[in-house]
Design a protein that fits this description.
single chain, alpha/beta, Cobalt-precorrin-4 Transmethylase, domain 1, Methyltransferase, Cobalt-precorrin-4 Transmethylase, Domain 2, 2 domains, 5-stranded parallel sheet, 5-stranded mixed sheet, 8 helices, 10 strands, globular
Length: 261
């Protein structure tokens, strides 16, 4: 018996991994984040399986389900939204499992920041502009470490993907303008990949009132950075004068033995 932490993806059931779909269809005990995982994804679980909505559960109550699975010698699926490794609070659950002597594994999922980038039809990296992506959030009831405050991250001028922060969007924009500039592009994606997905785009100057007008107050991803601009340098990857292991500088392909074709 073991506990399997499964990434439910951002919402659209078509974005589940093949392994996640298989595990859900076979599972007998499932603990899922009911406030975040789409009903369509939960609906893959057999109707006669044991379901537990973790939205109102404590860690001790989740532990009790793990113990019950151990007693029944039945695997437990712990279904987390997005990718379990990002703001999934899985380490504390793993520590419980370590104490109980229960084995576990993690099945990754598509994160909401990836679904949000897809919704924007953008790339998060751009040649000579942004080669670094930072996943973070603003401080709330969970404080930020001193060296990871937004202003510190902004100094890098990387592409920022901010979770759990749309309710502080005006403050976020004000803090970023000194580093990114008032005209820096920004996108706010509400419930990326869900049927009611909403996209609001703008600049650091005008994004806050746009999002307020749209009525978005939670469950949204913020993506900001110059890489979101449509006007970016062309990469060298496909340039005819750029050689690499599969193509010579004149554009001809090379075979696996190094011969040109």
């Amino acid at each position: 018996m073991k506990v399997i932490f499964v990434g439910a993806g951002p919402g659209d059931p078509d974005l589940l991994t093949v392994k996640a779909q298989r595990l859900l269809r076979q599972c007998r005990i499932c603990v899922y984040a009911g406030s975040l995982v789409s009903p369509e994804v939960v609906g893959l679980v057999p109707k006669d399986a044991e379901l537990h909505d973790s939205a109102a559960m404590t860690l001790e109550q989740i532990e009790a389900v793990f113990v019950s699975g151990q007693q029944q010698n039945t695997d437990v699926i712990r279904l987390h939204t997005g990718d379990p490794a990002i703001y999934g609070a899985i380490r504390e659950q793993m520590n419980v499992l370590d104490r109980l002597g229960i084995d576990y594994e993690v099945v990754p999922g598509v994160s909401s920041f990836q679904a949000a980038a897809a919704a924007l039809k953008t790339e998060l990296t751009a040649p000579e502009i942004a080669q670094t992506i930072i996943l973070s959030r603003t401080s709330g009831r969970t404080p930020m470490p001193a060296k990871q405050e937004l202003a510190e991250l902004a100094r890098t001028e990387s592409t920022l993907c901010l979770f759990l922060s749309v309710h502080k969007l005006a403050t976020v924009a004000d803090e970023l303008i000194p580093y990114y500039g008032a005209d820096c592009p920004i996108g706010v994606i509400f419930r990326a990949s869900w049927p009611d997905e909403m996209i609001v785009e703008g600049t650091l100057t005008d994004i806050a009132p746009k999002v307020t007008e749209a009525g978005i107050t939670k469950t949204a991803m913020i993506i900001v950075g110059p890489a979101l601009s449509r006007d970016i340098p062309v990469s060298k990857l496909y340039h005819r004068h750029f050689s690499h292991g599969y193509r010579s500088a004149d554009g001809s392909a090379e075979t696996s033995d190094g011969a040109e074709s």
